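#onboarding

Welcome to the new folks! Below is a worked example of what a typical request in this channel looks like: someone posts a single protein sequence, and someone else replies with the predicted structure as tokens. Don't worry about understanding the tokens yet, we'll cover that in week two.

Example request:
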Amino acid sequence: MILKIMINDGWNKKPEGWEEVNIYDHNNITDKLDIAFNYDSIFVLAGGINQNGECHEWVKRRLDLAVKLYNFSNENIYCLGGGSYHVPPILNKKKFTIHESTACAEYLIGKGVKSKKIFKEWSSFDTIANGVFGFNNFIVPLKLKKIVVITSNFHMNRSKAIFNWINSLYNNIVEIKFLSVSDKNIDDELISIRTTKENKSLENLKKNVILKYSSLQEMLNWFYTEHKAYCSTSEMDRSVLIDEDTKKTY
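Example response:
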């Protein structure tokens, strides 16, 4: 399926090949986006739910972009995300966990996406796990070749580093196009807090993980023995604590 979009509703493409779509940037409402990309799947990174089990505004923006692409292509949408290691899970009225990907799926269905075109992943509790399980659950077994990965501006740099790193460990088996949605008109303080944390996390990721593990076997061994959410002692030595303001961004 060839995607050809000419939109005049506020989409904005950055220069020099940077794949970013600011669908909520109303200051550039006359800008046009012209994308030609042969892809077979749409991946959306979940990004938290509120106490009512509903997606945060920044996640809805990601999903809205996914709906736009789906309406042009009718390709499957893959929602990645179970929850966050930093905050307790939200429970529904029956006391069952509301996974972030479930909230995303329900939002998409409400926007007209057919339920059988939506695939959920609910094992990941951070962006690294989004990448690991995105590849292990979908990209590799389903032999996907060209995908779109959607997230927010504040989350894009780390997401791109993670997916490109894991892809390289699989010998670049998939072509990835990254699309991000704008953070504008969302709580400025919240976005500032999260952006600062994202930058620190990306620096740590590059220095202490990506540069150290250059094979799939090394990465998976690290993931299941040292990653704070996935090692066997994850609950016995839970040590990753964040302040209350940062928790609001998850």
